Amino acid sequence: MDCTKFVQFRRDISACFTRAGAALFDLSDALLTEHTADTFIALSQAPCFQRRWPSLYAARRDGQIDHAALRRTFVAALPRPPFGQRLLLGLDTSPIRRPDARTSRDRTLVYWPNLPRDATPVVPGWSFSALVVLPQPVSSWTSVLDHQRVPSSQTAVTVGTQQLQLVLPLLPTRALLLLDRHYSQAPWLLATDHLPVDQLIRARVDQVLYRPPPPRSGKVGAPRKDGARFKGSEPTTHGVPDDEWQGTDAHGHPIQLSCWKQLHSRKARQVSITAIRIVRPQAQASKRDPREAWFWWLGGDLPALAEVATFYPHRFGQEHGYRFDKQDLLWAAPHVRTPEQMQRWTDLVAVVRNELVLAQSLVAGERRPWERRRQVTTPRQVRRAMGRLIMQLGTPVAPPQVRGKAPGRARGAVVKPATRYAVIRKSPPKPKKRDNRASIAAPVVQRC
Predict the structure, then answer these.
(1) Contact 97, 126 (CB under 8 A)
(2) Would the CA dihedral through 103, 109, 111, 112 be positive or negative?
(3) What does the pLDDT look like over 278-327, one tens digit per residue?
(4) Cα 360 vs. chain centroid, distance in angstroms?
(5) What are 162-188's pLDDT values in tens digits?
(6) Other C-beta atoms within 10 Å of 338: how many?
(7) Rounded to two decimals, what is the model's pTM?
(8) Which of 169, 227, 305, 322 is the most exposed place for a label (fewest CB within 10 A)?
């Protein structure tokens, strides 16, 4: 068992903690090993946590992290893709609900799924954009490259573009970025057109693209800027596809792919788009399992369609990773007040996740009697065995110095209430539709 890379990663991580580093590192070790903790304060009972419970909050409040060094450390330790496979990246946002935190500033309305059908799927909170390496095959073994909060002054498009600009120059090879449908918009196309990365973006079926404009007719006036319309939901606008392929997917079900090249969006004419349609006849034709799905390819040359059919299912590994972060690594559990503290806690969760990826081959995951033996080991099972490994390797930080009991708050001190902050709306609320039936039933009576 060679732990050299794992030990060096832990040393590099400790060097990224520039203030309250020892407390931050102990907190990350507690999160890594205390798999039975279901609350933030319960992490203080971890055997590897060398401090008392107030140090949990002190580390989260006073700690400082060098994000540039942390990003370089994450990239240096990223897992290499299997031989002959491309490096797959995923970029997406995930919300942290803070509906009642009136003393937390810079809260916005974030998307919250799985609400009742007649409810508005938004709640006050913070949104975080994560750039991760997607595992092959699909699983929850994602590796975090960068994780940043989306402030109210920016959008997921601007933050995601900044993350790519910082991370892509550090990667050893050209990657393929898999994106969900809310990135299929003109601002994203214009912001990332110059970046050295290929993109496969899921698109809506009703989005309209255009073919190249026809040659100049010689008539007076400006030439046409767009050609014929192309809309996925209107088969009459498709024409003959540039390439087609039929085969079977990983489950043996039939699948059909067609592509149309040299398309563009009206608001981003300089960006060339290849539209790809994937048809799965055996699907249930529901919102979660559609029979027809549309994608956009941006970047270099389009690979063979048989290879393209295998790319996008890997994006769901990021969803599995989010679920593990929130259910097991307590990402959304602490009730922090400031967005800086939440960013600090998010960085520690990313550190623990990448440590688990590196330790996957160093420990044998602990399985419960009801868990299947033939399945691939999960991050949850590896985390159960990390306590023994950390006790053997030790910690790169020095033990704490006993300073005695704090004097506490002075008697008679005036405690000012914390400042309250309103939820920031990035766009004005839509006006409610006026019901004209009342005005029709009751005519207006004018008085002289």
Answers:
(1) no
(2) positive
(3) 999 888 888 778 899 999 999 999 999 999 999 999 999 999 999 999 99
(4) 22
(5) 999 999 999 999 999 999 999 999 999
(6) 14
(7) 0.90
(8) 169
One-letter amino acid for residue 1 of the chain:
M
What is the tens place of the pLDDT at every residue in 227-243?
999 999 999 999 999 99
Amino acid at 294: W
The model's pLDDT over 44-62, given as tens digits with 9 standing for 90+, comes to 999 888 888 888 998 999 9
Q: How big is the CA angle at 214 (ends 210 and 216), to the nearest 5 degrees?
A: 140
Cα–Cα distance for residue pair 379/142, rounded to 1 Å:
10
Quick check: 280 and 340 in contact, CB under 8 A? no
